[in-house]
Amino acid sequence: MSKTQSAIIVGGGIGGAAAALSLAKVGIKVLLLEQANEIGEIGAGIQLGPNAFSALDSLGIGEIARERAVFTDYIAMMDAMDANEVVRVDTGQVFRDYFGGPYAVIHRADIHDTVWQAALKNSLVSYRTATKVVEVNITQNDVEVIDEKGNSYKADVLIGCDGGKSIIRDSTLNDKPRVTGHVVYRAVIEREDMPEDLRINAPILWGGPHCHLVHYPLRGGAQYNLVVTFHSRQQEEWGVTDGSKEEVMSYFDTIHPRPRQMLDKTTSWRRWATADREPVESWGTGRVTLLGDAAHPVAQYMAQGACMALEDAVTLGEAVKACNGNAIEAFKLYQAVRIPRTARIVWSTREMGRLYHAKGVEREVRNLLWKGKTQQDYYKALEWLYGWKEENCLQPR
Ligand SMILES: Cc1cc2nc3c(=O)[nH]c(=O)nc-3n(C[C@H](O)[C@H](O)[C@H](O)COP(=O)(O)OP(=O)(O)OC[C@H]3O[C@@H](n4cnc5c(N)ncnc54)[C@H](O)[C@@H]3O)c2cc1C
């Protein structure tokens, strides 16, 4: 079997940057094409589990990421109706020793920059911005992509890292996104504007009827990230539109004043109607595969979308090594392990969304079940997720 010499990666988000780094590390020449004028991340915070740090360690950038991240003291879920704690998972030293890595929060720009700067140091990585791919042609000997200006780029293989609305996915699979009907508003709050009793060094999720809020510190607590989510009353279309404070308030009017006080602090009223996709049995054929949100878009309730993209990238590199440099064979191995794992995330996330948003008797049962668990119970339940490592990445988990 011949060794793969070159790859095109479409999309320069966290997934594309990590894939470029991972493939270059195993000797494949990478051309990354990004539609935006600059490669980077906008937006606010992101949570990273120990599995993400294992992936970052494998890519050789774990220490840099740790320096830029804030390690949390715990993760908690509060009942937004009565402000009582339902779940607390300690993420201190015992957790770090158990899973071999921290739970942390980090600014999106910081984690993206950490990965991308490392990729750029590798002479096998080159890139083009302002290059929107619009067409894919697969031949027996190579794969060609064409951008909207008509330029053609060729390589041995192609990895679509072009996000939830992936054109690479559309060119190989015939499936449709599934609009969740949930709407998200995001904000960054300066420390002085964050209510004092909520300046907590932990991701805190407040679960309410058909809604939830999440907040956590950014950049050492100088800022706080706030995400609010609710089930929309109207038919939604996947995408971003203008919203309003009145809309948000109307979904949270029955919750306890403690979490509700944060809604007054928000200054951005853009609304994201979210979507995921039903897991599929293949992410492409022969020379083409997918990675990150292009492969497995998922709602944010388990905070694992970017973590999965990092795991994908490491697994892809390990699969290439295991297949003696042949990426076409490696894609099969990669998909065989990544499809079930990421499908589990998609389905578990949907279930978590339902439980976070429970009301009435379901809320009472949820609280009873979760309040009764010990730290060891939670650690064991999270083992399949946070226990991922490079050493076991080619085994099904
Ligand atoms: C509210 C919210 C909170 C979240 N919180 C977390 C969290 O705490 N932890 C976590 O792990 N994950 C979280 N996620 C998920 C995470 O943000 C995504 O899973 C992750 O960013 C996906 O990265 P990606 O590189 O696969 O895709 P993207 O970030 O979408 O990148 C795709 C890139 O491809 C480019 N592109 C698209 N089409 C083309 C084209 N045709 N030609 C060229 N370029 C193209 C785009 O411009 C973009 O740069 C959250 C998501 C949301 C919405």
Features:
alpha/beta; globular; 5-stranded parallel β-sheet; FAD/NAD(P)-binding domain; single chain; 397 residues; 8-stranded mixed β-sheet; binds flavin-adenine dinucleotide
Describe the structure.
The structure is a single chain. By secondary structure, this protein is an alpha/beta fold. It has a domain of 211 residues: 3-Layer(bba) Sandwich (FAD/NAD(P)-binding domain), CATH 3.50.50. The strands form 4 sheets. An 8-stranded mixed β-sheet has the order 6-5-14-15-16-13-18-17. It has a 5-stranded parallel β-sheet with strand order 8-2-1-12-19. Strands 3-7-4 form a 3-stranded antiparallel β-sheet. The longest helix is centred in the C-terminal third of the chain and has 30 residues. The protein binds flavin-adenine dinucleotide (FAD). The site of flavin-adenine dinucleotide (FAD) has 31 residues, from helix 1, strand 3, strand 13 and helix 9.
Q: Rg, please?
A: 21 Å
What's the architecture of the domain at 6-52 and 62-70 and 106-176 and 277-354 and 387-392 in CATH terms?
A: 3-Layer(bba) Sandwich
Structural class: alpha/beta
Bound molecules: flavin-adenine dinucleotide
Global outline: globular
CATH topology call of the domain at 6-52 and 62-70 and 106-176 and 277-354 and 387-392: FAD/NAD(P)-binding domain
InterPro entries: FAD-bd, FAD-dep_Monooxygenase_BioMet, FAD/NAD-bd_sf
Keywords: Aromatic hydrocarbons catabolism, FAD, Flavoprotein, Monooxygenase, NAD, Oxidoreductase
Enzyme class: oxidoreductase
EC number: 1.14.13.24
